[in-house]
Write the structure tokens for this entry.
Amino acid sequence: MKHEPDEEEAMPRKRSETLTEGEQRLMEVLWTRAGGATVSEVLEAIPERERPAFNTVQTLLRIMEKKGYLRHEERGRAFIYHAKVERADAARAAVHSVVKRFFNNSAGLLAVRLLENEELSDAELSQMRQLIDEATQA
């Protein structure tokens, strides 16, 4: 009996413009290396028990470059990858994506959910109060 793919299987998965978990792991390496890193250097910086295959890292770096997170330069036969996006900007994009996807574009609803469901430290609560006060006085 031949398996016919249903509509969901037949459609290619939409490429995420935010970093996937695996991509973020590689970005963490590049954010710490001002001079950039080769595929091998990125690979060596990942703990051995979490280390993907060389080809996987190479493919992810190319995808991240297409997404605009990286650039590369050629040194001999090696590509040296450099982060083009700061960590704070990547975090901002990820939060925006979560707010859009799960909270109907409402940052306030996200804040409410955080207060309802997460154990925040006194320092975090104090910072939130300060930001709320500043926002209401503006």
About this structure: Residues 58 and 106 are 37 Å apart (CA to CA). Helices lie at 7-10, 21-31, 39-45, 54-67, 87-102, 107-117, 122-137. Residues 1-102 form a domain with the Arc Repressor Mutant, subunit A fold (CATH 1.10.10.10). Strands lie at 70-75, 78-83.
